[in-house]
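cron nightly-structures :: item 1 of 1
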Amino acid sequence: MAGGGGGRSAAANSGRKGKFSSPIPIKKARIEIVPLIDVMFFLLAAFMMVSLSLQQSKTRPMELIDAKKASDDFKPDVLNIGVEKDGTVAIGTNVVDTAGLARELNARYKANPKTPVFITGDRSAPYRAVGGVLQQVRLARFTRVSFVTRESERARD
């Protein structure tokens, strides 16, 4: 056997069929899932932000402080607390005193500890009154608390 080929060609040694073979191995295509996961997390975050903006609140009419973005929403399983400019506190449309507020908060917490609480304060409401309501909400152990505002005139333009 001249040439020492052993009867097998180079194509047979590399495992490829054909007359000629390349010394560079051919890579198989791979599906990369990391970009797919990134896109899915982005979509999840976007849908979560949209669903949070759809929550509704219903309180007595009052002049709200300005903010960049806000929406007026209503859900029946939400606790809406309003603070008037004279310091009067109302749950929904019912005016309550400090003891009545504490009783209602404790009753709602026992019914559902994950109930969202929305505090609506009039622009002229005393800071002490709004802070007192927030303290009562914290004492009742609620963790999902938000302040309701309205969109400012400059942000609407």
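cron nightly-structures :: done
The radius of gyration is 33 Å.
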